[in-house]
TrEMBL record:
Family that this chain belongs to: Belongs to the short-chain dehydrogenases/reductases (SDR) family.
Stored PANTHER family: 3-OXOACYL-(ACYL-CARRIER-PROTEIN) REDUCTASE, 3-OXOACYL-[ACYL-CARRIER-PROTEIN] REDUCTASE FABG
Alphabetized InterPro entries for the sequence: 3-OHbutyrate_DH, NAD(P)-bd_dom_sf, Sc_DH/Rdtase_CS, SDR, SDR_fam
Domain of life: Bacteria
Gene3D superfamilies registered for this protein in UniProt: NAD(P)-binding Rossmann-like Domain
Protein name according to UniProt: 3-hydroxybutyrate dehydrogenase
A Pfam family of this chain: adh_short
Length: 264
């Protein structure tokens, strides 16, 4: 349903060329926000994606290919958003990568990359977005954490550490801005069928000689009691709620949408 809740506002969503980030960006566009896309991908496909969102929702779009592990590129992206649209009203920190290994076998460069992209990048975008948000006395910062910001899983040390860190950063950002119009919250998805998770499904199917559907069911049955994936669209609707006036007193929460994973 098209709306005007965010008409004239600008939403910057990191890691928004696919998966959860794209689902969230589309929901904001649907509500009239201009979108700054960021993420990896084929230049032609990213151009087509922008064109589609522009024509479908009648909003303006821009793209910046900042590598979220590099503070200087993040600074360039935030300057670009300010020049293009006059600033960022809604910041969604979604960019993330994954690597799976036991702690003693975990490649040091993978640890560093995951901490940089999944945690430090959110600090950099946040510190750069806050001054303008505070000046306007309105802003929404949404950190896409994970159920792994609330609980652990074997072989995901860097990811779990980064996502717990994101939840902590969310609380501090919320508290520092508690008296004003800027809120900060975290969304903690369970299994979502993104390209990142599809890779894990494919690996399991190959290892255990399962069909792709069987591998999906096996993956879900381990952790997610509902037996269904969360969708990017559902996460987008939660993001919209957290950016609404109704959520102005929701501050510093880590809201899990996880089919019951953390309730166990």
């Amino acid at each position: 349903m098209q709306g005007t809740m965010h008409q004239g506002k600008t939403a910057l969503v990191t890691g928004s060329t696919s998966g959860i980030g794209l689902g969230i960006a589309r929901k904001f566009a649907e509500q009239g926000a201009n979108i700054v896309f960021n993420g990896f991908g084929d230049a032609g496909e990213i151009e087509a994606l922008q064109t589609q969102v522009r024509s479908e929702f009648g909003v303006q779009t821009a793209y910046h290919g900042a590598d979220m592990s590099k503070p200087a590129e993040i600074e360039a992206m935030m300057r670009f958003a300010a020049e293009k649209f006059g600033g960022v009203d809604i910041l969604v920190n979604n960019a993330g990568i994954q690597h799976v290994a036991n702690v003693e076998d975990f490649p040091v460069e993978k640890w560093d990359a995951i901490i940089a992209i999944n945690l430090s990048s959110a600090f950099h975008t946040t510190r750069l977005a806050l001054p303008a948000m505070k000046a306007k006395n309105w802003g929404r910062i949404l950190n896409i954490a994970s159920v792994h910001g609330l609980v652990g899983s074997a072989q995901k040390s860097a990811y779990v550490a980064a996502k717990h860190g994101i939840v902590g950063l969310t609380k501090v950002t919320a508290l520092e801005n508690a008296q004003g119009g800027v809120t900060c919250n975290a969304i903690c998805p369970g299994w979502v069928l993104t390209p990142l998770v599809q890779k894990q499904v494919d690996a399991r199917a190959a290892q255990q000689s399962l069909s792709n559907d069987e591998a999906k069911k096996a993956l879900l049955s381990e952790k997610q009691p509902s037996g269904d994936f969360v969708t990017p669209e559902q996460l987008g609707e939660l993001a919209l709620f957290l950016c609404s006036d109704a959520a102005s007193q929701v501050r510093g929460v880590a809201w899990n949408m996880d089919g019951g994973w953390v309730a166990q």
